[in-house]
Specification:
Layout lengths: L3 H26 L4 H20 L5 H21 L4 H29 L2 H26 L1 H25 L1
Helix pairs in contact: 1-2, 1-3, 1-4, 1-5, 1-6, 2-4, 3-4, 3-6, 5-6
Length: about 170
């Protein structure tokens, strides 16, 4: 049982960093209007809701799909900046990335049976991720937006392997 609180914390850290990386990436390359924030947040939430019902989405596929979507959007908006067409594709990418955010608690419920503690740890990771993102982006800039999601996803996938090995 001890393995799930750190996993939940790391998941929250991953989710918050990825959400803010999406937001800053799109604000730098598409538009800093409120509409950009609203579309990406709504797309993430719709993806999370869909993720609640996708039964065959395991943790490796969920994190992998999210990471693939993020870097696809990253490549798109950096190669075709300020195109309104890219906002729609970015919304699809954010929705796909949000799938694991919805599936995460369903997965944990079946594994751990105490979602309140897991939510507590995931939420703390999310808050730490917000602070980490703003410090990282302020001190490092654009390279942080490129490297942080990949680094956190790698840590999360390593944690998945550790959980599999110990169960």
């Amino acid at each position: 049982m001890i393995k799930f609180p750190p996993y939940s914390f790391l998941t929250g850290l991953y989710f918050s960093t990825l959400q803010f990386c999406y937001l800053i990436l799109l604000q730098m390359n598409i538009s800093s209007a409120y509409l950009t924030y609203m579309i990406i947040t709504t797309a993430w939430l719709v993806g999370s809701i869909i993720g609640l019902w996708v039964n065959h989405l395991d943790r490796n596929i969920g994190v992998g799909l999210g990471l693939f979507s993020y870097y696809s959007v990253y490549a798109l908006v950096t190669n075709i900046p300020f195109s309104p067409f890219t906002l729609a594709l970015a919304a699809v990418g954010a929705g796909v990335t949000g799938l694991w955010a919805g599936r995460f608690f369903i997965f944990i419920l079946h594994q751990y049976k105490q979602v309140d503690r897991i939510f507590f740890h995931e939420n703390n990771g999310f808050w730490v991720g917000i602070v980490m993102f703003f410090l990282g982006f302020t001190l490092v800039g654009r390279p942080f937006v490129f490297w942080a999601p990949m680094t956190l996803a790698g840590l999360l996938l390593l944690n998945h392997l550790w959980i599999k090995k110990t169960t």
